Amino acid sequence: MMRTKMAEKYIYHVTTTTGHVRKSPRSEISADTTALLRPWVEDMIKGELRGIMDTHYSCRCEQHSSKMIEFVISRLSDDFKQTDLVRFVVCNHSRRKKVAWAWVGGVGDAPEVPFCAAQLLTDNVIPDDFNYIPAFADFERCIAWTWLEMIQSKKESK
Protein backbone atom coordinates (compact mmCIF):
# COMPACT_ATOMS: atom_id res chain seq x y z
CA MET A 1 0.00 0.00 0.00
CA MET A 2 1.30 3.42 -0.92
CA ARG A 3 1.11 6.25 1.58
CA THR A 4 0.46 9.70 0.32
CA LYS A 5 2.23 12.49 2.07
CA MET A 6 0.02 15.32 3.29
CA ALA A 7 0.81 18.53 1.50
CA GLU A 8 2.45 20.94 3.88
CA LYS A 9 0.44 23.98 4.90
CA TYR A 10 1.88 27.28 3.79
CA ILE A 11 0.98 30.93 3.43
CA TYR A 12 2.02 33.36 0.75
CA HIS A 13 4.15 36.09 2.30
CA VAL A 14 4.21 39.10 -0.01
CA THR A 15 5.87 42.49 0.31
CA THR A 16 3.80 44.85 -1.83
CA THR A 17 6.49 47.55 -1.78
CA THR A 18 9.15 45.35 -3.40
CA GLY A 19 7.07 42.65 -5.09
CA HIS A 20 8.92 39.94 -3.15
CA VAL A 21 6.79 36.79 -2.78
CA ARG A 22 7.65 33.71 -0.79
CA LYS A 23 5.81 30.60 0.31
CA SER A 24 6.14 30.30 4.08
CA PRO A 25 5.62 26.73 5.23
CA ARG A 26 4.06 26.14 8.64
CA SER A 27 7.07 24.00 9.58
CA GLU A 28 9.40 27.01 9.74
CA ILE A 29 7.59 28.39 12.80
CA SER A 30 7.94 26.31 15.96
CA ALA A 31 4.98 25.46 18.19
CA ASP A 32 6.90 27.17 21.02
CA THR A 33 6.96 30.39 19.00
CA THR A 34 3.23 30.39 18.29
CA ALA A 35 2.54 29.54 21.96
CA LEU A 36 4.70 32.50 23.03
CA LEU A 37 3.07 34.89 20.56
CA ARG A 38 -0.56 33.91 21.16
CA PRO A 39 -0.91 36.18 24.24
CA TRP A 40 0.82 38.96 22.29
CA VAL A 41 -1.74 38.71 19.49
CA GLU A 42 -4.57 38.59 22.04
CA ASP A 43 -3.15 41.72 23.73
CA MET A 44 -2.80 43.56 20.41
CA ILE A 45 -6.39 42.68 19.46
CA LYS A 46 -7.43 44.27 22.78
CA GLY A 47 -5.64 47.46 21.72
CA GLU A 48 -2.32 47.02 23.54
CA LEU A 49 1.04 47.89 22.05
CA ARG A 50 3.67 45.11 22.16
CA GLY A 51 7.36 45.98 22.19
CA ILE A 52 9.47 44.05 19.69
CA MET A 53 13.14 44.21 18.63
CA ASP A 54 14.52 45.94 21.73
CA THR A 55 12.74 49.02 23.03
CA HIS A 56 12.74 50.97 19.78
CA TYR A 57 10.04 49.07 17.86
CA SER A 58 6.49 47.99 18.61
CA CYS A 59 3.54 46.28 16.98
CA ARG A 60 -0.18 46.97 17.30
CA CYS A 61 -3.39 45.69 15.75
CA GLU A 62 -5.34 48.26 13.74
CA GLN A 63 -8.45 46.32 12.74
CA HIS A 64 -9.58 42.72 12.68
CA SER A 65 -12.33 40.21 12.00
CA SER A 66 -12.40 36.42 11.76
CA LYS A 67 -11.35 36.72 8.10
CA MET A 68 -8.48 39.20 8.25
CA ILE A 69 -6.37 41.25 10.60
CA GLU A 70 -4.13 44.29 10.18
CA PHE A 71 -1.00 45.05 12.20
CA VAL A 72 1.40 48.00 12.17
CA ILE A 73 5.06 47.91 13.19
CA SER A 74 6.32 51.28 14.44
CA ARG A 75 9.55 52.87 15.61
CA LEU A 76 9.23 54.37 19.07
CA SER A 77 10.91 57.61 20.03
CA ASP A 78 12.29 58.08 23.56
CA ASP A 79 8.96 59.66 24.52
CA PHE A 80 7.03 56.72 22.95
CA LYS A 81 5.76 58.56 19.88
CA GLN A 82 5.12 56.04 17.10
CA THR A 83 6.35 56.33 13.53
CA ASP A 84 4.70 53.65 11.41
CA LEU A 85 7.16 51.61 9.33
CA VAL A 86 5.35 48.47 8.18
CA ARG A 87 1.67 47.70 7.70
CA PHE A 88 0.87 44.03 7.33
CA VAL A 89 -2.33 42.12 6.92
CA VAL A 90 -3.16 38.45 7.31
CA CYS A 91 -6.15 37.17 5.36
CA ASN A 92 -7.70 33.71 5.53
CA HIS A 93 -10.88 34.13 3.49
CA SER A 94 -11.26 34.62 -0.26
CA ARG A 95 -14.20 37.02 0.19
CA ARG A 96 -11.98 39.50 2.04
CA LYS A 97 -8.75 39.10 0.10
CA LYS A 98 -9.31 42.12 -2.20
CA VAL A 99 -9.96 44.40 0.79
CA ALA A 100 -6.96 43.04 2.71
CA TRP A 101 -4.75 43.39 -0.38
CA ALA A 102 -5.85 47.03 -0.82
CA TRP A 103 -5.01 47.83 2.83
CA VAL A 104 -1.32 47.22 2.07
CA GLY A 105 -1.23 48.89 -1.33
CA GLY A 106 -1.40 45.65 -3.29
CA VAL A 107 -1.52 46.06 -7.08
CA GLY A 108 -3.18 43.53 -9.37
CA ASP A 109 -4.78 40.37 -8.08
CA ALA A 110 -4.50 39.44 -4.42
CA PRO A 111 -2.63 36.21 -3.63
CA GLU A 112 -4.48 33.02 -2.79
CA VAL A 113 -5.52 32.76 0.85
CA PRO A 114 -4.17 32.38 3.39
CA PHE A 115 -1.64 35.16 2.90
CA CYS A 116 0.38 37.69 4.83
CA ALA A 117 1.04 40.86 2.86
CA ALA A 118 3.27 43.67 4.08
CA GLN A 119 3.81 47.23 2.94
CA LEU A 120 6.99 49.07 3.89
CA LEU A 121 6.05 52.69 4.59
CA THR A 122 9.17 53.96 2.85
CA ASP A 123 8.59 57.66 3.61
CA ASN A 124 9.05 56.91 7.32
CA VAL A 125 12.05 54.54 7.13
CA ILE A 126 15.45 55.84 8.23
CA PRO A 127 18.83 54.12 7.72
CA ASP A 128 18.82 52.64 11.28
CA ASP A 129 15.60 50.77 10.46
CA PHE A 130 17.13 48.77 7.59
CA ASN A 131 18.98 46.44 9.98
CA TYR A 132 15.61 45.33 11.35
CA ILE A 133 13.72 44.72 8.08
CA PRO A 134 14.61 40.97 7.88
CA ALA A 135 13.58 40.53 11.52
CA PHE A 136 10.29 42.33 10.82
CA ALA A 137 9.60 39.85 7.98
CA ASP A 138 10.23 36.90 10.32
CA PHE A 139 7.99 38.51 12.93
CA GLU A 140 5.21 39.01 10.34
CA ARG A 141 5.27 35.31 9.43
CA CYS A 142 5.26 34.24 13.08
CA ILE A 143 2.34 36.55 13.89
CA ALA A 144 0.48 35.39 10.75
CA TRP A 145 0.75 31.70 11.67
CA THR A 146 -0.18 32.43 15.29
CA TRP A 147 -3.32 34.34 14.29
CA LEU A 148 -4.34 31.73 11.70
CA GLU A 149 -4.08 29.00 14.35
CA MET A 150 -6.04 31.09 16.86
CA ILE A 151 -8.87 31.52 14.32
CA GLN A 152 -8.77 27.80 13.46
CA SER A 153 -8.98 26.88 17.16
CA LYS A 154 -12.02 29.14 17.59
CA LYS A 155 -13.74 27.48 14.62
CA GLU A 156 -13.01 23.99 15.95
CA SER A 157 -14.29 24.81 19.44
CA LYS A 158 -17.73 25.87 18.15
Short description:
By secondary structure, the chain is α+β, with helices and mostly antiparallel strands. The chain has helices spanning 31-45, 97-103, 133-156, and strands at residues 10-15, 20-25, 50-52, 57-64, 68-76, 82-91, 115-120.
Question: Which features characterize this protein?
Answer:
158 residues; alpha+beta; 7-stranded mixed β-sheet; 29% helix; disordered N terminus
Mean pLDDT: 91
Number of strands: 7
Question: H/E order of the elements?
Answer: EEHEEEEHEH
Strand order of the largest sheet: 2-1-7-6-5-4-3
Computed Rg: 16 Å
Q: What form results from the Cα inertia axes? A: globular
Low-confidence stretches: 1-6
* Class based on secondary structure composition and strand pairing: alpha+beta
> Biggest β-sheet, characterized?
7 strands, mixed
Residue share in helices? Answer: 25-40%
Number of helices: 3
> Strand percentage, roughly?
25-35%
Number of self-contained structural domains: 1
How widely separated are the two ends?
Answer: 36 Å
